[in-house]
UniProtKB/TrEMBL annotation:
Ranges for region Disordered: 1-26
UniProt cross-references to Gene3D superfamilies, sorted A to Z: 3.30.420.40, Winged helix-like DNA-binding domain superfamily/Winged helix DNA-binding domain
Similarity comment: Belongs to the ROK (NagC/XylR) family.
Annotated Pfam families: ROK
Residue ranges, compositional bias (Low complexity): 13-25
PANTHER family given in the database record: BIFUNCTIONAL UDP-N-ACETYLGLUCOSAMINE 2-EPIMERASE_N-ACETYLMANNOSAMINE KINASE, ROK (REPRESSOR, ORF, KINASE) FAMILY
Protein name stated in the entry: NagC family transcriptional regulator
Length: 420
C-alpha cells in the first residue's frame, strides 16, 4: 500500500494544567477521538492495512489493533483481500469501509417531490425512489408521512440484503435549526417551526438517526467531490431553488455561524430600494434571481397564476427549455443581479471557486451571457483574482449525493453513536 501522510494526530493523555485550568480529555474522549481518526483514515484512503494505520497514527500496535477490531465489530469496516508488503512473510490484509451490514440515506423534502436514496458505506446504491408531490399544498404531517413510508420501503430493501439503515440526512428549502432539527421557516413549503427530525425519528420508531440541513449544505459536499477540490480549498455554492440558497465550505467544514444561520446568500442585499422580501428586508438576491422571480415574470405576461409551487417550478423550467422570449428577458436581468452578488461574495470570502448549482444549472443557458457581461463590469479588480466561477454539472442531483456523503461523514465523526 502507498505511504500515508499523518492527517489526524492521535490524542494522548495529558497531565492537568497548572493552576486548575481546563481538565485534560478523559480516557473516553481519547478513545472516541482515536476511533474516529482511525475510521477517517480508512475512508480517506479507501484501502489501507493495519501497518499503514499504525504508521500514520503514531499509536502503538496493540491500540490500533483494538481500534480496528472495534470498528469491525460495529460493522463500519471490513477486510478485503491482501496487499503485498514487499517484505518476507504473509501479505497484509486490506481494510476498507463496509459494503454490507450498515446503510445510510439522504432524504430530500422539496416543493414538488420527496426523494430518498440509500447506499452502503462504500456508496453502493441499495434503494432510490422519488415521489412527485406538491408539498406546499399539503400539511407537513402529510409530507413527513410520505417520507416515513419511503424510509420503511428502503428499510425492507436493505433488510433483503441483510443491511439496516442507521442514519439519514434530510434536506429542505428552508431556514433550518441544524442543531435541533427544526424547519424554522420555509416559504417554498409553507412550513414554520416544524420539528422534522423529531417527527421522522418518531415515525421510524427510533431505529434511524436523522439530521436536518438546508439543501445547499448537503449539495456542497457532492460539488466538492465532483469538482475534485481539496479539503483546504474554500468553495462557495449558490444553489437555485424558488429563490437562492447558499453554502460556504472550507477545510471540509460548512460555515454555519454561531446561531446556525450562516450561508443565507439569497438574502444578500443587491438593491437597497428594491423588491420586498419575506424576510422583512428589501432588495434581497432571491427576490431577483431564481425560479420564483421567473415564475412571476411568466405570470405577468400570461395573466395566469397558479397557487401551487410545484406547478410554478414546472412551468418556469419549461419556459427556459423552450427559450420563450419572456424567459430570455427575465433571465438576462437575473444574470445582471447575480453577477453583482457574486462580485460581493468573492470579495468577502475569497473562495477557490463559486459554483452555480441547483435550478441555476437549468437557468444557466439563458442567464450566463448577461451574467458574464455584468461580471466583467463589476468583478474586475484584485478581489476576484483567482476565483473560478463554474456551472454545476450535478444540478439538483447534488442534494441526494451530498446527503449520502454527509451521513457517512457523521458516522465517521461519531462512530460510537452506533452503540449508544
Amino acid at each position: 500500500m502507498a505511504n500515508l501522510k499523518r492527517a489526524t494526530r492521535p490524542v494522548k493523555a495529558q497531565a492537568p494544567a497548572a493552576g486548575g485550568a481546563d481538565a485534560p480529555p478523559s480516557l473516553v474522549d481519547i478513545r472516541r477521538h482515536n476511533l474516529s481518526a482511525t475510521l477517517k483514515s480508512v475512508r480517506d484512503h479507501g484501502r489501507v492495512t493495519r501497518a499503514d494505520l499504525i504508521a500514520e497514527s503514531g499509536l502503538n500496535r496493540v491500540t490500533v489493533l483494538h481500534l480496528v477490531s472495534e470498528l469491525q465489530e460495529m460493522g463500519l469496516i471490513q477486510e478485503s483481500g491482501l496487499a503485498a508488503t514487499g517484505k518476507s512473510g504473509r501479505p497484509a490484509r486490506v481494510l476498507e469501509m463496509s459494503d454490507g451490514g450498515l446503510a445510510v440515506g439522504a432524504l430530500e423534502l422539496n416543493v414538488d417531490h420527496v426523494a430518498l436514496k440509500c447506499t452502503s458505506l462504500q456508496g453502493r446504491v441499495v434503494f432510490t425512489e422519488r415521489r412527485d408531490v406538491s408539498a406546499g399544498d399539503h400539511p407537513p404531517e402529510y409530507v413527513l408521512d410520505l417520507a416515513a413510508e419511503l424510509i420503511r420501503q428502503a428499510a425492507s430493501a436493505a433488510a433483503a440484503e441483510a443491511m439496516r439503515i442507521v442514519r439519514v440526512s434530510v434536506g429542505c428549502p428552508a431556514f433550518v435549526d441544524n442543531a435541533d432539527g427544526v424547519v424554522l421557516k420555509s416559504l417554498s413549503l409553507g412550513w414554520a417551526d416544524v420539528r422534522v427530525v423529531d417527527e421522522l425519528e418518531r415515525r421510524s420508531g427510533g431505529a434511524v438517526a436523522f439530521t436536518l440541513d438546508k439543501l445547499a449544505d448537503l449539495a456542497i459536499h457532492a460539488e466538492r467531490q465532483n469538482g475534485g477540490f481539496a479539503g483546504e480549498e474554500g468553495i462557495l455554492l449558490l444553489y437555485g431553488e424558488m429563490g437562492v440558497g447558499g453554502s460556504f465550505q472550507k477545510h471540509s467544514e460548512i460555515l454555519r455561524g454561531d446561531a446556525g444561520m450562516g450561508g443565507q446568500f439569497g438574502h444578500l442585499t443587491v438593491n437597497h430600494n428594491g423588491r420586498p422580501c419575506y424576510c422583512g428586508r428589501t432588495g434581497c438576491l432571491e427576490t431577483y434571481v431564481g425560479v420564483a422571480p421567473l415564475s412571476r415574470a411568466l405570470e405577468s405576461s400570461t395573466g395566469h397564476h397558479s397557487s401551487s409551487a410545484a406547478v410554478r417550478v414546472s412551468e418556469a423550467l419549461a419556459a427556459v427549455q423552450e427559450e420563450r422570449a419572456v424567459a430570455k428577458r427575465e433571465l438576462a436581468e437575473q444574470g445582471m443581479w447575480l453577477a453583482r452578488a457574486v462580485s460581493t461574495l468573492t470579495a468577502i470570502f475569497d473562495p477557490r471557486v463559486i459554483i452555480l448549482g441547483g435550478y441555476l444549472t437549468q437557468l444557466a443557458p439563458l442567464l450566463m451571457p448577461a451574467f458574464e457581461k455584468e461580471l466583467g463590469l463589476y468583478g474586475e479588480g484584485e478581489f476576484t483574482h483567482g476565483t473560478e466561477i463554474v456551472v454545476s454539472q450535478l444540478g439538483t442531483a447534488a442534494v441526494l449525493d451530498g446527503g449520502i456523503d454527509t451521513a457517512i461523514g457523521d458516522l465517521v465523526r461519531e462512530p460510537w453513536t452506533l452503540t449508544a
